[in-house]
Write a structure and sequence with these properties.
- This protein has 414 residues and is α/β, with parallel strands linked by helices.
- It folds into two domains: 249 residues, Collagenase (Catalytic Domain) (3-Layer(aba) Sandwich); 114 residues, Spermadhesin, CUB domain (Jelly Rolls), CATH 2.60.120.
- It has nine helices and 19 strands.
- It has an eight-stranded mixed beta sheet, covered by helices on one side.
- Helix 7 crosses helix 8.
- The two termini are 43 Å apart.
- It binds zinc ion.
- Zinc ion binds next to helix 8.
- This is Metalloendopeptidase.
- It is an enzyme of class 3 (hydrolase).
- Its EC number is 3.4.24.-.
Length: 414
């Protein structure tokens, strides 16, 4: 509560004056009163507006800020600079850094704090060694600069350059953590996710909506090495829904429409981004006993007997920032069925269950699933369609507020 109060003060002071009206505070008071929330829920018509105000603004991404041409050449795929050397050699895939050593130099005008945060992430999550070198060094290195736009070379090209450097620009608007880790990802060898050879199984390019001059940005690269890591709509390397759109319409649709909101995130590299980086640089070879990739989750788990499943903390309100998955696995020959006796989580915003949802994957672990929120599942009964009879539930609550009371479902094997 205390933290919420601090946030609220900051949020209000940052808002334009025209939004400083009492209706917003009324909603807030209602949220703060947990018992009132349980009784009344949020019914206000201005909820959508309220969330748009309080949600962090989406930072501009490279497709909105980057020039088409840099002094060094044309940008491919929006933010990949190809060197003359590369073109001469016909390089078609990102070259790795020798001996997992990534050298870099930060020029005075570049944003050191943002760059170091991005480097720290990849240092902490891979076996690549990052070493800052001086400008007089003869080591091949990335030169972090702040020129116009956010862009990088693909992989290590510096070792072929007479200057022994390759530029990586983080210009104005490019210092968000997701963007920095994205551009460093390119310089380590990452393509864009939707360039993968298997992308057509996961997304559809809406060619008619792509600006004519930018169609080459959506080409597939058949030589991408995916190292057994599945395609990831949530990759920090994935384009967003309307990149390079000529008319505002989507240029990329996810094959599973409920997952459209996943693409284009620039918060941080995903689990699979990290997994791919570790495979690219063969990090597992260095470990005599590889550490687990993640700690055991604090909620969710496998359900192999009939009973109930409920939101975390039930009957208390669920916590903010919860992310719980349940894998409901019946005995052979039977099907999992869930019947929701109570279902109340945050209502839709902009027509989607963007902030809080229960995702139900009736087709089992390989099914993208459907997302539900508000009271959409009250009294509903859902039965697995998977060959194994299993289903998966995933509950996510919003990081800042709780806006519903939660859910309870009975689990049966039929
Ligand atoms: Zn990129």
């Amino acid at each position: 509560m205390w933290l919420f109060g601090i946030f609220l003060l900051c949020g209000v002071s940052a808002m334009p004056n025209r939004y400083r009206d009492d209706s917003i505070f009324n909603v807030t008071k209602l949220q703060l009163d947990r018992s009132a929330l349980r009784e009344e829920e949020i019914k206000r018509a201005n909820l959508q507006e309220y969330f748009e105000l309080f949600d962090e603004p989406e930072p501009l991404d490279f497709h909105e800020t980057n020039p088409v041409l840099t002094p060094y050449g044309r940008l491919e795929e929006g933010d990949l600079l190809r060197s003359a050397e590369e073109d001469r050699k016909g390089v078609t895939s990102g070259e790795l850094w020798t001996d997992r050593r990534y050298n870099y130099e930060i020029t005075n005008d570049a944003s050191r704090a943002a760059i170091e945060a991005g480097i720290k992430f990849w240092r902490d999550h891979s076996c690549v060694q990052f070493q800052e070198v001086s400008s007089g060094s003869s080591e091949p290195r990335v030169l972090f600069v702040a020129e116009s736009g956010c862009w990088s070379m693909l992989g290590c090209t510096a070792k072929h350059a007479s200057s022994r450097t390759q530029k990586l620009s983080l210009g104005s608007g490019c210092t968000g953590f997701g963007t920095v880790t994205h551009e460093i990802g390119h310089s380590l060898g990452f393509y864009h996710e939707q360039s993968r050879s298997d992308r057509d199984e996961h997304v559809t390019i809406m060619w008619d909506n792509v600006k004519e001059a930018y169609k080459h940005n959506f080409k597939k690269v058949d030589t991408t090495q995916n190292h057994g890591v599945p395609y990831d709509l949530g990759s920090v390397m994935h384009y967003g829904s309307t990149y390079f759109s000529s008319n505002g319409g989507p240029t990329i649709l996810t094959r599973n429409p409920t997952l459209q909101g996943l693409i284009g995130q620039r918060n941080k590299p995903s689990f699979r981004d990290v997994a791919l980086m570790n495979r690219l640089y063969r990090c597992e070879e260095l470990c005599s006993s590889p550490p687990p990739y993640y700690p055991a989750p604090s909620c969710g788990g496998e359900i192999s007997s009939e009973g109930t499943v409920s939101s975390p903390g039930w009957p208390a309100l669920y916590p903010t920032g919860a992310d719980c998955s349940w894998w409901v696995r019946p005995p052979t020959g039977r099907r999992a069925r869930v019947t929701f006796t109570t279902f109340s989580i945050m209502q839709q915003v902009n027509g989607s269950c963007k902030y809080e949802y229960l995702s139900v994957r009736l087709g089992g672990v390989l099914d993208g699933g459907e997302m539900y929120c508000s009271k959409q599942l009250t009294g509903k009964q859902l039965t697995s369609t998977s060959p194994d009879g299993d289903l998966v539930l995933r509950f996510k609550s919003y990081k800042k507020y709780f806006m519903g009371s939660g859910f309870v479902a009975t689990v049966q094997f039929v």
